[in-house]
């Protein structure tokens, strides 16, 4: 199928909107016509080179939802017309990580930035006669994707697909980082550092878990104001600014849980977060850093003597086939706010503006909404 998509052809180049070809589903795969795709910071890590790929071009996007339009051989539990949300991990259910209860860490994740399909190791997307690497084997910056069956989760057809797209990454990652990884308990004091598309959902998860105080830290005023709308009890513009008020509030004990959701994690940001973390408290690192950066500032004396924990978090520790549907049920029952998360809707041609807005702190979540023109038209512009 010929359609169009947003590609990058090298580090620090803009997204290029051009014609691509998406292959039909092979055994164990499905093709999905997407309604929308979220603009996640993780795709910008491809542009900066923080997330390295073996070759270019790359088709971005890993947060989307749509309707199944074709199924490959061996797929008997998903059919044409089903509404689905995409998962950027595709758990096999058989590897050690899956069987130990960590499907988000499935061994198949090793393929996510290679462009090699899980079913047979071949390419599904081409452009200018070259194989294309789709982000996380999805490539949702195109109105059509061909993906592994385990990368799609069937959902209720009454749920707006534009909003369902958000649980494909940002909502699930943030919520799960608070609920599953930080394991926030009733009465806890929780600090969320960075309240963009991920952090605002960590905040929602902390509130739903019964946290007594939820403190949002972000340099962008409108994000701080928005966090109050979703349950933050106090806000600050930086970790340094929050240090003394948090000490007063907790009588010197500091926060039970600190969740770092900055767009690009730097090694020097860990120690200030640990200063906000109490003895025997837990600091969860959600924000991605560069793949090659091994420099971290950390007081090892305090780490040992305070028995503090540092935990990484991928996809919020979620089990995609279960967790995504559960979150959408919470949305349907009014216990999870998705409607207000989308700050701006964009056309595919406006993707570079969307990322500029993200970097300038103008969006909680930007969303590409596809039209018939996107699905049928050709493009060759940046």
Describe the structure concisely.
This protein has 382 residues and is α/β, with parallel strands linked by helices.
Q: Could you name the key traits of this structure?
A:
seven-stranded mixed sheet; alpha/beta; 25% helix; 382 residues
Write the layout of secondary structure elements.
Layout: E1 2-8, E2 16-22, E3 29-39, H1 41-48, E4 58-59, E5 64-71, E6 83-86, H2 96-99, E7 125-127, E8 130-131, E9 133-134, E10 144-148, E11 152-154, H3 161-164, H4 170-181, E12 189-193, H5 199-208, E13 213-217, H6 221-229, E14 234-236, H7 239-249, E15 255-260, H8 270-275, E16 277-285, H9 300-305, E17 309-312, H10 320-332, E18 342-346, H11 351-359, E19 365-369, H12 372-376, E20 380-381
Parallel strand pairs: 4-9, 12-13, 12-15, 13-14, 15-16, 16-17, 18-19
Antiparallel strand pairs: 1-2, 1-4, 2-7, 2-20, 3-5, 3-10, 3-19, 5-6, 6-11, 7-8
């Amino acid at each position: 199928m010929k359609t169009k998509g947003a590609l990058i052809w090298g580090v620090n180049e803009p997204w290029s909107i051009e014609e691509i070809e998406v292959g039909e589903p092979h055994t164990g795969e499905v093709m999905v016509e997407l309604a929308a795709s979220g603009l996640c910071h993780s795709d910008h890590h491809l542009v900066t080179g923080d997330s390295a790929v073996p070759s270019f071009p790359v088709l971005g996007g890993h947060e989307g939802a749509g309707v199944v339009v074709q199924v490959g051989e061996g797929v008997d539990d998903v059919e044409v017309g089903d509404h689905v949300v995409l998962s950027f991990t595709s758990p096999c259910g058989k590897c050690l990580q899956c069987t130990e209860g960590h499907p988000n860490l499935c061994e198949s994740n090793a393929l996510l930035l290679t462009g090699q399909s899980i079913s047979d190791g071949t390419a599904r997307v081409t452009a200018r006669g070259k194989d294309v690497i789709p982000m996380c084997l999805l490539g949702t910056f195109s109105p059509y994707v061909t993906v592994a069956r385990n990368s799609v989760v069937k959902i209720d057809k009454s749920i707006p697909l534009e909003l369902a797209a958000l649980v494909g990454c940002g909502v699930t990652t943030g919520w799960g980082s608070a609920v599953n990884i930080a394991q926030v308990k009733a009465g806890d004091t929780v600090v969320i550092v960075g309240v963009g598309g991920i952090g605002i959902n960590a905040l929602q998860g902390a509130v739903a878990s019964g946290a007594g105080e939820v403190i949002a830290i972000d340099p962008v005023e409108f994000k701080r104001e928005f966090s109050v709308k979703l349950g933050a009890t106090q806000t600050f513009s930086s970790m340094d600014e929050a240090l003394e008020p948090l000490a007063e509030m907790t009588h010197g004990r500091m926060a039970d849980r600190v969740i770092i959701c900055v767009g690009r994690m730097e090694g020097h940001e860990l120690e200030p977060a640990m200063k906000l973390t109490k003895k025997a408290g837990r600091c969860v690192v959600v924000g991605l850093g560069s793949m090659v950066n091994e420099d971290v500032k950390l007081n090892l004396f305090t780490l040992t003597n305070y028995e503090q924990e540092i935990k990484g978090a991928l996809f919020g520790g979620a089990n995609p086939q279960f967790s995504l549907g559960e979150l959408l049920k919470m949305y349907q029952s009014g216990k999870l706010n998705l409607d207000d998360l989308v700050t701006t809707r964009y056309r595919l041609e406006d993707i570079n503006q969307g990322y500029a807005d993200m970097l300038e702190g103008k969006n909680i979540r930007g969303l590409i909404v596809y039209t018939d023109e996107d699905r049928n038209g050709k493009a060759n512009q940046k």
